[in-house]
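[job 4471] stage=fold_predict status=RUNNING
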Amino acid sequence: MQLEILTPEKKIFTGEVYGVQLPGLTGLFEVLDKHAPLVSALKEGRVKVLKDKQNTLAIVNIHGGFVEVLNNRATVLAEGADVIEE
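[job 4471] inference complete, writing structure tokens
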């Protein structure tokens, strides 16, 4: 799955990943390879980028935003973000 994490100022992350864990308004959820189309609002919290089933590739702290999943591509549009770990 292709993942992009964007803010109004810059591109935070782009690359091929196994999945991503996101802070939805009602709790955490995970988007994996070949996920059904989805649009969701995100609250402030941590985004975990998963390179495979066991390993975390990066952790990004976002300040709210939205995610769109379509055609095996996830795009996170965040109001602001800080990379915690890469």
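[job 4471] summary: The radius of gyration is 11 Å.
[job 4471] exit 0
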